[in-house]
Amino acid sequence: MDTGDQMRKKIFVPAILLMLLFAAAAMAQPKPHSAAGKTLSGKEIGYPVYPGSKYLEHSGSMAAPGWKSYIFTSNDSPEKIKAFYEKKTGKKPVLLKKDKQTVYFFPMKGKPPIADEYINVEPNSYGGSAKTIISITKKIKKGKK
Question: Which pTM was predicted?
């Protein structure tokens, strides 16, 4: 039979190892603006991809559960990218404010404030050299990934 000290060691050591594992995983998360080499087409996503933008391959993990996000960066201005999406989608964006900056929110399916699919164009406030962040986000239908 285990003594109290042996029991504590059996619980304490795995708990410490688990905490270290979580800490290592958190530190290993890719930086939001380390552009990946993978490219995606509008056909794969279902919406046009802004020409010359860089896909952040790890971006799918940034979405909330039940959602899929494709995040891109660009050195073009948010206004230029907004004009592209207005022309390509035939929709006018809803203007939102984030940290005193304008965010262009294109609800593609569903109604704001919670659209089932949307394109978001915003100034880059996350760091890195890109001027603009473009996200194309979709609600995942059950049974699909």
Answer: 0.69
Reply yes or no: is the peptide bond before residue 113 cis, omega within 30 of 0.
yes
For residue 9, give both structure tokens. 């060691």
pLDDT tens-digit series, residues 60-107: 666 778 888 999 999 999 999 999 999 999 999 999 988 889 999 999
Contact (Cβ atoms closer than 8 angstroms) between residue 103 and residue 36: no
Place of tokens 């995942």: 140
**Which residue matches tokens 């592209």?**
84
Phi and psi for 72 in degrees, rounded to 5? Answer: -125, 155
What's the distance, CA 77 to chain centroid? 19
Residues 6+ away with beta carbon under 8 Å from 51: 84
Report yes or no: 139 and 66 within 8 Å, Cβ to Cβ: yes
